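Possible regression after last week's pipeline update?

I re-ran a chain I had predicted before the update to compare outputs. Posting the input and the new output here so someone can diff against the archived version. Not blocking, just want to make sure nothing changed silently.
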Amino acid sequence: MAAKFAGDSTVALAMCGDGSTSEGDFHEALNLAAVFEAPVVFLVQNNGYAISTPVSRQMRAASIAAKGEGYGMPAYQVDGNDFEQVYPRLHEAVERARAGGGPTLIEAMTYRMGPHTTSDNPDRYRSREEVEQWRGRDPLTRIQHQMYQRLPNAKTHIENAILAAEKIASEARTSMMQLQMPDPQDLFAHVYANPPATLSAVAEEYAQQHAAQNGENA
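New output (post-update):
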């Protein structure tokens, strides 16, 4: 909305999963964006499950894209594991928003190969056969195959991209490990101008626990 009122070229990209579309915040955001023609693209990654709840038990709509149409904005469903489908739609939506055309919703059909969290056991709600079926649609494998078909030096491009990505990741890890540990009391700073007694008591208790765990004098 700030970009809309400022009249600049900023376009926001809002990403969420299929489960989030059952939340009230999602619908409020779509309605507000449509009414004010906000420069935003809503990208919904539909991996079929809200943790363990399948999409078929989350909604009766034909698709999540249909929800965008219900709020009066262009909405599309694409193969989220196919770069050649995702990128053109995203590019079109961004340019439309930048030109003052308002929001767009894109539903990208994809899959979560692993568990939702470390405490999740996906074998309880989906079959191994389903997982293996989606494994064959891996987006990285697909785009590599497309590159091999169309680029004469695809192998070199892919190897260079992997090396560059590994270098960036390695430098990021090294930089992060060199950072100093933050002061635990920062958790309680900049929350209130005048902290209530209850928060101050919690901060003091936390400081004592931290000192005890680290062999420090409180």
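Follow-up from reviewer: compared with the archived run. The chain has eight helices and six strands. Marking as no regression found.
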